[in-house]
Every structure is written in structure tokens, then in C-alpha cells.
């Protein structure tokens, strides 16, 4: 067995680093952008360079944290009775998770989501649902992107500082989400050469 690195000698795992970072962010506010590697190292009782045995840099840590947050969203059921309803459920759950962690929304906006394993699993499930609704293969990635951007944007507008009542924001998101899903899955596509 080879020599253990500093992070292993300190008894750290990637999971313990993420858990400590999540707690620190929740306590200090400001979302992942406000997190410093020095503060995280102090929380873990290690030197800052020890953390780099588990994450490449702060951007890598933020990407891992954003993806970890997405594990709280139940994966799409590819066999759901109504694939469009299941797609709506996934986006509503995503919206609710983002509202529970409003300080994280700017980081999701900056990255237009996450690209880690949880994000990929959610995306693959959405692709399967869109396939069942008849959305052409070449359009599915763009539909997923639009739904994600719309959901993150709606969560940003529903931040606690908003002057609009939360129930109105939630109802507005549900309606607009329904329009997007209906438009993507049911309406006939217009020809790009249409003159109307």
C-alpha cells in the first residue's frame, strides 16, 4: 500500500469536506461564493493545503457542492404514467430545493446549473421523459437547458427580498413551467421558413 496523502492522514474524505463546507455556508450565509478555503480548513482543524487532497481548487469544491445539492431532488421516473407530468414534478422539486437554499442560486445562475454526476443523472432522466413525449432527439438538450434556466431564474426572482408574495411567485412559476413543457412536448413545430 502506498503512502497516504495529507488529507488521508488527517482522516478526511471528500464527504467530510463537503459536509463541513455545507454547514459553514449555512452558518455564514452568502452561498458558496462567500466560502473561503481558509475558513473551511479551520472548521476541519487542518491546514488549507490538506483540503486539496480532495478537491482541486475552490471552483472544483463549488461544483461538487452544487451537484451535491441536486441529490436532494428525486430522480425522474422514466416509466411514469405521464412523462410530461413527471418532467414538471422534477422541475418543481428543483425549484423548491433552490428556494430552500436561496444563497446558492447565484452560483447556479453563474454556471447555468451543475455538470456533476447528480446533474447528469437528472438530465438523462429528463431526456428519457422527453423522448416518450415525442420531442425529437436533436431538440431534447435544448429543452432541458431552457427548463433548467427558467427554473433557476424563477428561483432567483423568488428570493426572500422579493416584494411579490411567495404564493403568487410559486403559482406563476408553475404556470410558466406548464407553458414551456406543453410547448415543447405537444405543439407542432413551426417551419423555420414560415412567412407568417
From TrEMBL:
Recorded coiled-coil stretches: none
Pfam families reported for this sequence: TetR_N
DNA-binding region: 36-55
InterPro entries in UniProt: Homeodomain-like_sf, HTH-type_TetR-like_transc_reg, HTH_TetR, Tet_transcr_reg_TetR-rel_C_sf
Source species, domain of life: Bacteria
Gene3D superfamilies, alphabetized: Tetracycline Repressor, domain 2 (1.10.357.10)
Residues of the HTH tetR-type domain: 11-73
Transmembrane segments: none
Entry keywords, A to Z: DNA-binding, Transcription, Transcription regulation
Listed PROSITE patterns: HTH_TETR_2
An MF annotation (GO) of this entry: DNA-binding transcription factor activity
Record PANTHER family: HTH-TYPE TRANSCRIPTIONAL REGULATOR BETI, HTH-TYPE TRANSCRIPTIONAL REGULATOR RUTR
Protein name, entry field: TetR family transcriptional regulator
